[in-house]
Design brief:
8 strands
Length: 933
Amino acid sequence: MKDLEMLELYLRRIVEFCEAYDAFSIPAAMMSGGTEVRLQDVYTHLSYYQREEYEKGISSDADSSVGNGLTDMDLESLIAKIDAKIAELEIGIEEPGGWNWFLSEPGGGKTTLLKMFSLAYAYRYYTEHFGKNAELFGGERSIEDIETICGRLGVDKGNGACPVFISVRDLKEEDYPGISDPDQFKKLVLNSMNSLVGETSSGFDAESLFPSIGRIVYFIDSLEEFSNAGFRKEFLKGLDAFAHECRCCLSARYREYMESIRQEKPGRAVMEYTEKEYVIGKPTEETVRAFAGKWYEALNRISDKKLDVDRDFLIPIHKNPNVKELIANPLELTSLLMISSYDSCLPSDFVKIYGRSIELWLNWNNHDRYNYEDILRQLSQVAYRMAASENEKIIVSHETLSTFIKQARSGMKRYYQQEWSEDQASVDRFIQFLCDSRLISRSTEGYDFIHRQYQAYLAACCITTNNFPRETRRKRRLDYVMEHILEKDDFWNQIIIIIVMLDIELRDDIISALFELSEEENAEPADRNYYISLLIQLAAMPGVNFDDLELEELFGLIVRDPAGWGLFDSKRADLQRLFELNDEKGNDLFIEEGLKKNGELPEAEKGRFRDSIGTVLFHCIWNCRVGEQYISDVLRTFYVSSINTNIMEMLYHTGKLTTGQQIIREKACLIGEEALRTSGYSDCYMLIAAITGYADYEDPYSAVTDLIEKKEFGSDVTAINILMLAAWLTRCKEASRYGYKADPGIWTNYAEFVLRGITDKEHREMQRVYLMAFSDIFAIGESSDADIWFREEVFEYILSATLAAYEEDQSPLDESGSGFSYFEHLSMYPCRYSQVCVKVLKETGKDPSGIREKLWETYRDAPDLMIRVRAAKLLILFADMQPAETKPIAKELETQGKDIPARNRLVIEDMITVFTRSLEQIKDYSEAPPSAD
């Protein structure tokens, strides 16, 4: 066979290998008698990101021309960098090849991506040598699909190469003892090529073909699956030595790569210029829809079914929040699609989805015809023994896994439907079957389940079916569960939940036991919280259905003890799901408990309780069914203070208000209006402002503009609260997330409105809100235009109020940081306003000496850096200091500002911008004399 003939044959085989879609074989064979569906028919691209950017959470350079980087690098730039490195190290380096790493979680799409790269390069190389062959590539439709894939991966015309695909899973390490040697590595490459073509193709000789191939790209899949870290290190040396002039794509699990593989790579100096690391992103809503759509399109094409992606898959999935995490993993997403293909629907019970997925994976490639029930008995024993162990709960060594399987086979012989040998070769073959099924994953560290939920399901099955050897079997299955509940082993939480879902009798026993443990008088708070948290998780499971007495008891347990209030946050998602499942009566029980507890608390503790319960309680009234009579009580009791970002999140994603939400809004507005008539102001307007900003306008700033134009006091109150929310979210770096992103300079539009509110003598009770809004605007750097924001008449007004306040409490600055004072507002003004201050003091005949003395004392003694810089600013204003006198102060503050702990505290308290701007104002004043005016 001639070289070109061998090359064509090999490229044909690599194309067939890359197109094969094993996961599709089950539904395809069932419905169409084996009609072939190719991987490119359903392939949906997942973006990949530079590792450094991915870890920063930026990920802006997704898919940054990796394809071109494999075969068409900028050689002039690369050679220049290499030459510089050679000069630095005084060594000779040959022109290198580039390594590209693709990392993901287990089942995250590494193998599929490498196969698609291989297909793209093989297709380009084939058409370059032999032209398009519609028969080989599945017709014009498939050629269009491959062209799309090539474009998405950046593999352009003329950039083709001959792929060599090596799967670590299929590699027998004992066959290559000297793998670091180039000749031994070449043996591996040739064996891989010959194995791909197969023995049926007489005349094919990889060794004869190899020298004439030309461009080669090596694909090494799943580096973490080597059983020995030492062999893996030698393998990478061999790859580097043998293929250093070629491009290499390698894949590994992210965790294993970062913890070990990264340190095992060859240490060539040129690597830093040619090597790139990419992380494969998780499926988005768009990619899930696209993948499911392609899957159903392919099935409909090969069968008489008319499956609809929304009706048959997406809607059932989103109705079941417990399986959403499976969608985020490509392999698990495939599992869900396989279930929907087989059964034409998805089980509503998420536990049944796990069971059905396991059944499909175990029947996949079951060439040895193992009995499924027998497999399940052994595998559930393995899952239970791993979960019950101290050191191998998640990853189990080959030796321990073999022992668990042998124990299951020897102790349960009477229950099997076929004979199971305890011979090591038989056990090893069974372990390999489990790995091939995709249910178990192998790594250098050992073996683990592809998904923790599968392990939990199997361990739960072991207990619920009493699947233990009769010599060790306990009469009460509850004993197995209680052992781990009393240990308070968090690893067992999901196992216990699945047991409750699987077995009604155990469900009742477990819930009763948890209530008893939660109510023990001598129980430690941490222990009680553990038991209560489990009860919350169980109550939130669809189908478990606590009755009203149990719900009342559960809510009482959560609310009663301050040591357990942290559960409102740590179990917030479960509680919110519980409210969504409840009818109106059940949610009213929670509100009653909350109102009752708040009424019993002393005033000093009410704030902490409100902060703890506020988020879950608002979710309860905003998104779930509650009695209308409770809404006013809840609003008056819990939302008279500021709201948090969790509540903002709910409001931002609300969309058009429901009837119940309209009622909440109306009642909040009535409370606000009543407060304006009586006490002058209510902090309930923070909630009113948040709802108004989202419900009636395209964006909150449009709401502010419209409200200001009404020129009504109530509208102004809502408007200033929206601006406070906007400034607060900007300080928290959350403005864009909640729809408050503003163009630079937009705040100047509101300067007149804010300053007018500060000096409004008719509504002095609202002055605090305007002053705080101004403070936040200063803190985010939006008041830098002094002519617009800092006006003499406003300064004079605030100075008069400041002097009056000082005469009342003799406290220039609140060193506790718990309040906002007129002095604090004055400290934001530029230092040149000292002349205005002197003028006002003279006109009013006020003696500022007492103020100056206290400010000097604060500046010298206050431990807080923010208090000190404010005291320094106020000293300049009240003492009319000359610029030369302020230089030592500026220098001292600048030095103190470099202290890491002090600066970190400023960052944590979100005051770094305030400190920086204040210090700059002092330094600017120190560098130039005050203006004549």
